[in-house]
């Protein structure tokens, strides 16, 4: 919780936790107060005699002193969606050759990707190219007549 809230790397090495960043006491204290208010202190009687319990898909904070229950939202990290590659293997694209590589292949760029076109040897020529392979930010294609 602390590492995520403070935006720094951390390691939990029981019985202690190590945060790998320079932080002030105030920064850490504020995050600890937030944590205790959210996950420890009862919102009704303000006592720390609580425990977390999972009820179906909800996590509840249950107070042992007064019996109050309230849902606690657990923060989940959502993986960002991968952007769709601008090239599909087997498709034909119209590309302008910007440069010629060491092997004599034409080099074109489109949507942040570099395309190596076999059979296109002149700079400035626009060709139809059939994509044969896509690897990372590179695509490989063959010039079509």
TrEMBL record:
**Pfam families (alphabetical):** eIF-5_eIF-2B (PF01873), TRAM (PF01938)
State the PROSITE patterns in the record.
TRAM
Q: Which residues form the TRAM domain?
A: 86-145
Check the record and name the InterPro entries matching this protein: IF2/IF5 (IPR045196), NA-bd_OB-fold (IPR012340), TRAM_dom (IPR002792), Transl_init_fac_IF2/IF5_dom (IPR002735), Transl_init_fac_IF2/IF5_Zn-bd (IPR016190)
Q: Name one GO molecular function term.
A: translation initiation factor activity
Keyword Protein biosynthesis carried by entry: yes
Q: What are the protein's UniProt keywords?
A: Initiation factor, Protein biosynthesis
Similarity comment text for this entry: Belongs to the eIF-2-beta/eIF-5 family.
Name listed for the protein in its UniProt record: Translation initiation factor IF-2 subunit beta
Which organism does this sequence originate in? mine drainage metagenome
Q: What is the lineage of its organism?
A: unclassified sequences, metagenomes, ecological metagenomes
